[in-house]
From TrEMBL, chains A, B:
PANTHER family: DUF1611 DOMAIN-CONTAINING PROTEIN (PTHR40690:SF1), GLL3100 PROTEIN (PTHR40690). This is DUF1611 domain-containing protein. Residues 47-124 form the D-glutamate N-acetyltransferase-like N-terminal domain. Residues 131-327 form the D-glutamate N-acetyltransferase-like C-terminal domain. It comes from the Bacteria.
Amino acid sequence: MRISQPYLLFLGDVTDPLSAKTARGIVQWRPEACLGQLRLTADTVSLGLSEMTLQQAKQQGAKTLVIGTANAGGVIPRNWLDTLISAANMGFDIASGMHQRLSEIPELTELANLGITHLFDVRHYNERLCVGTGKKRQGMRLLTVGTDCSVGKMFSALAIEQSLNSRGINARFKATGQTGILIDGQGISVDAVVADFISGAVEQISPDFDTHQWDIIEGQGSLFNPSFAGVSLGLLHGAQPDALVLCHEVGRQHIRNLPHAQLPTLEQTIQANLLAARVTNANVQFVGICLNTSSLIESEAKQLCVKWGKELGLPVTDPVRFGVETITDKLTV
Amino acid sequence: MRISQPYLLFLGDVTDPLSAKTARGIVQWRPEACLGQLRLTADTVSLGLSEMTLQQAKQQGAKTLVIGTANAGGVIPRNWLDTLISAANMGFDIASGMHQRLSEIPELTELANLGITHLFDVRHYNERLCVGTGKKRQGMRLLTVGTDCSVGKMFSALAIEQSLNSRGINARFKATGQTGILIDGQGISVDAVVADFISGAVEQISPDFDTHQWDIIEGQGSLFNPSFAGVSLGLLHGAQPDALVLCHEVGRQHIRNLPHAQLPTLEQTIQANLLAARVTNANVQFVGICLNTSSLIESEAKQLCVKWGKELGLPVTDPVRFGVETITDKLTV
């Protein structure tokens, strides 16, 4: 999947700021890719971008209309269809992270078949893949792994990419989930591929390279999440990481959505990931820990990072509050 | 998937005995489900079953025509189509383990849409699934795991089912791969589901039960196979096994098809599986080891089983040569 940029971000008539998290992520990490925003009502959430009609955005060079919102059912609302179909007719590509596929909308499929638009359903994957091999590939790779889902693996990967690039070290974020794909304009939702091809998909996302220094691969799930651990293990093997960064939310009580499922300790998570990662890279090591400390006040968070850093012998930080420089320090020596 | 039995086994015009391995497995493990065989030529491999025309099989109550052969491309040969379409027209269901889907053959799809036949492409899976939860389920479960692919996990599971049942302990084989599904007439190819649903698929294959004593779940792949380990981990979590049986081929030099990928030791495989399995069942334990010793003469094989049995503190056997009674002894106390 390779989604053309720049984007016009479509916010529909969404009024809940949380529902526009994906769009906000795109603006945060790829501001240069965001030409403007299109809202259907005055009440709609704003990202602070220039308001544009389809016409204006087209004139200024926008390539893709991106649905950067989520809703409970994942269904594309009927009152958005006019805008989407008009955009496709004008030659915009359309990208969506909704469950319902754009390709289920006959008018859009028809325009896509005529070559007038391209549809990107980033939550799904239909292309052919190869089975993974675990063969050693050229280039250095960092993967973010976690104690659970939704603990900051994408954010940490993007922050590390940005930090390395700002130090003059050429690093490229590699997306493995829908939000990451919309942000970067490419990648594969590894949880959406057929199970036999998980590691193969990651080998395709991050192939042999000598054009830059690091691939920073977005992790998914956790080896300890009983719903999704298979995805995490295939991703770990396919990434064959040289460096791992552990992500964790301070104060989480149990595996997300599963009150009966115990959260692993940081030590358990480190050990399990090292053991498994050695299958495809004997030299793998952890280079840091990224915490989501939003449940703590800042001074407590700082203390905790120092304490755990000493106990685990690794740089520990909250990437939102304190950045990731202590981790990228370790990648630049 | 629930495939009606008894079967008429279709061998097409296959002359290589290895290509009829699936059909042979069905005859070996479910002889009562095999009414007869249908061969297109006199040279075709025979399973030693009664030769039947479609007409004869239908009259005797056959429900499903099973394509029990494999070929290199996985494509259904054109000269088989007449037989398949005639069978569907007569009301046979059709089951196939080929890569090419029966549902890609328009004549068959048309008859299926009319309700005249049902098509079972056991290598594929299109039904809706739920995400796994890891919640504790009723009933006892045994899972076969391996150092690699193709080391006897299905055979061992079927042998253990048979041994338990012959001792009056009610056990049910649960299929997770295409051959197992054709043998048992039900199951899900877990490597064919969308990656997010691996453990959920296994939870569906082996739900809560109090109707019998053991579910004997067929394992897939290996935690150490860099192509397929994600499937193996999701399967392990979804199975939440009480008992594990380790399968291994003596003399294998490296991971199948991957000369660069090292085979794990038995001890490594045991440790990695126990660690991972505890995520959904704290009480999991290994109850035995099944070896494929076909590279050794029988006396050497016997010695090796005794030696490794002492070293690992578990019953070690070759299920083909020595049966699995030493293992099922441990399940009946």
